[in-house]
Write the structure tokens for this entry.
Amino acid sequence: MKVLFIYPNINTQVGFNYGLAFISAMLKKHGHDTKLLNLNEKLRKIPSDEEIVKYVHDYSPGLIGMSVVTPQYPTALRVARLIKKNFSDIPLLIGGVHTTLVPDEVMKESCFDYACTGEGEEAVLALATRIERGEDTSTIDNIWARTNGTVKQNNVRSFVDLSNLPMKDYELFDLQHMIDKEDGWVRLMGSRGCPFRCSYCFNHKIVDRYKNDLSTSDIGYIRRHNLKEVVDEINYLLRTYRGIKTFIFDDDIFTFDKKFLREFCAEYPRLTNVPFVVNGHVRAFDEERAEMLKEGGCSIVKFGLESGSARIRKDVLRRPMSNEEIIRAFNAADKYGLHTSAFVMIGLPYETREDIMATIELLGRIRPGRFRWAIFFPFPRTDAYEMSVKGGYLDFKKMRELENFTEASCLDFGPEHNLFISKLQKTLPWYVNSYSDNSVGNIYSFLTRAIEDMPPERWEEAKDGIISVDGELSQCLNKAGCKHYSFRYNSFTAVRSDWEHAKGE
Ligand code: SF4
């Protein structure tokens, strides 16, 4: 059977969807044919409705599937309605994290015939096979199915054994085009699952759902590919694609399994000298791991800090780590010459201005090589979502309309704090720079005071010019040899100037 996937990833970064790549590989292994309509303006012009209809008509699939996180859902719904209107006989399936969190909400939309909750490799294969054979599709674990006007809600099945899966179908995504567009960055993932239960992350809700449906607490959520599988995949990518400059591992916590880390870092330099990037966790990071990573060829280790306020981390985010642990982890990475990246969020429920200043202060204290920031987005039914609702913060209309986590908040804190968050989103590097010594600190303190004094109308006029002011100022400071952060790559990443120069960027 021909299966068409649609990935509605608009107004955001180029993305790679691991779920679709695995499902496609599984389908192809069992004789099906797959194709992807990847909607992302950075890769290709977004097709018009007529072009989408023609695309579907020309391929003529027996099943259409989409995979979405919450901000992608509005586009998915619009495209799904368009397709259903024109091809009422083609079954339409939706999956991904959003669907797993709120399958009942999704299935209220009559355009969707099936919803995949949880992992899709085995479930979508079973669905495609049964549709092709004309068999009953209402009893497939993980798949909610609309039959005769009612929705059959099936339980989840056990997690897949990663070693039984074929390698991801990179071709589905036209990976060479993505590599060319992404300056040589290629994404990989060697494991699934995370031992933590942060309130804003969907992991804890997925775990609860599986525990409930499988009636056991031993659900085997955390799994990893063995070293040979990871090595084979890297070799395949190096053999098949040109221009790879960096591998980026999207494993939730790459540094968690110390034994694997040791084996991987010993093996990697025998494969290639292409640098790699990993996610660490300050509670799973020390000097020993930093040394392994450095010797293995790691260039950047990323840490999610989320907030510099211990109160917010503990009470709102349920993210157990102290500022001392954070500082220790960054010192360990610095000692072995690893470039560090910190990730923070602003606009959290119950967050005060003092809490935000604590985040800025922490960034000023640890001085990561780069930092990225997002505006808090509450994934439906997570604990942080419930907190946002309970605190009266959530603007449901805005939430439905948001397409990414970087430009605006769907929480309402009142006009004054909303304005502060809007200003901060555009100028966070300036605030962090104001914690620098001497003249650099003074320049940026002056600028942030001027920004804070701006009334809303003046800010509306000024905000789109911030990045160009930042660029000009950064050039002057570079000439004067003054270290500072400035915007790099996009409007939510800042890189420390001495690292940029060291790398010749
Ligand atoms: S550590 Fe990261 S992946 Fe794990 S639960 Fe927290 S946010 Fe999710």
The mean pLDDT is 95. The chain has 21 helices and 17 strands. The first helix runs from residue 18 to 29.
